[in-house]
Amino acid sequence: MNTRRFGLACGVLALAVFLAPGAWAWADSTGTPGQERNAAMEEILDQAQWLGHDGFLFRAGGKVVVFDPFRVKTSEPADLILISHGHHDHCSPEDVAKFVGKDTVVVATADCTAKLAGLGADVRPIAPGESLTVGGIAVKAIPAYNTDKAFHPRANGWVGFVADLGGVSVYHAGDTDLIPEMDGLAPDIALLPVSGTYVMTWEQAVEAARRIQPKVAVPMHYGGIVGTGKDAENFEKALRGEVRVRVYK
Ligand SMILES: [Zn+2]
Ligand SMILES: [Zn+2]
Questions:
Q1: 146 C-alpha to ligand 1 centroid (Å)
Q2: 3-class SS at 163?
Q3: What is the full per-residue pLDDT of the chain (249 aa) written as tens digits?
Q4: Where in the chain is the domain with CATH 3.60.15.10?
Q5: Is residue 193 a contact partner of residue 91, using CB atoms and an 8 Å limit?
Q6: What distance in angstroms lies between residue 4's CA and the mean position of ligand 1's atoms?
Q7: Looking at residue 65, what is its pLDDT?
Q8: Strand blocks (E) in the chain
Q9: Which protein residues have a CB closer than 5 Å to ligand 2 (ion)?
Q10: From ligand 2's centre to the CA of 221, what distance in Å?
Q11: How far is the CA of 76 from the centre of ligand 1 (A)?
Q12: Cα 168 to middle of ligand 2, angstroms
């Protein structure tokens, strides 16, 4: 490569780095942002609770965020509750009620919002591709649908979520197969269904984790309606040495 070409290549590279939103934010921070972000992620992972099936509770920066609570035994006021779609094992009014406090916002797909109307929470609809921010938590709805079965048609407008918890991105995939919309998400934490039948099998979820490249993958959608701990175990074993997996009990 001659000098002029090298100069041009450097210029293009510098521009690409500048334009990449993550890189720019890091360059804008002080100290060792990569390490701080990793420490924040570890804290979020340690404080997270699996509520069973697709249900998770996250704590970050004094906020409580709950995904798809179902047959939950605990109760606590949440700041934000995210519901991926209207199926009864995801949109469960009696379980959502356990996390509704006086300032709780619930974000759900349109087929679920009507079922939650009587809970006294601020319920807001969301559709694939839409974004909103609640109490400083930015949320984006990612499409979620089946590609080789009919339970979750794309046309239903059901979703997964990417939530930004103080700079740590958490992707809850919802009920989905491996879909192209997962490409390039690269979240810090990816919660992926592994049960098969209505969603990805654990083998397909392994493929999804390879494509998504999260820092940590967490199996879900087992132990309740369909799928067992064996699916989670197989998922973890298959990704050893490739993608870090955390299995919640
Ligand atoms: Zn479903
Ligand atoms: Zn489901």
A1: 10
A2: strand
A3: 455 565 555 555 555 544 444 444 444 444 567 888 899 999 999 999 999 999 999 999 999 999 999 999 999 999 999 999 999 999 999 999 999 999 999 999 999 999 999 899 999 999 999 999 999 999 999 999 999 999 999 999 999 999 999 999 999 999 999 999 999 999 999 999 999 999 999 999 999 999 999 999 999 999 989 999 999 999 999 999 999 999 999
A4: 33-245
A5: no
A6: 56
A7: 98
A8: 49-52, 55-60, 63-67, 78-83, 100-108, 122-125, 131-134, 137-143, 159-165, 168-172, 189-193, 216-220, 244-245
A9: 89, 175
A10: 6
A11: 25
A12: 25
Topology (CATH) of 33-245: Metallo-beta-lactamase; Chain A (3.60.15)
Return the pLDDT at 33. 72
Rounded to the nearest angstrom, the distance between the alpha carbon of 97 and the centre of ligand 2 is: 19
Question: In angstroms, what is the span from residue 224 Cα to ligand 2's centroid?
Answer: 10
**Ligand 1 midpoint to CA 158 (Å):** 9
Q: How far is CA 238 from CA 172, 177, 196, 242, 244, in A?
A: 20, 18, 16, 9, 11
Ion ligand 1: residue ranges with CB closer than 5 A: 87, 175
Which ligand is closest in space to the CA of residue 225? 2
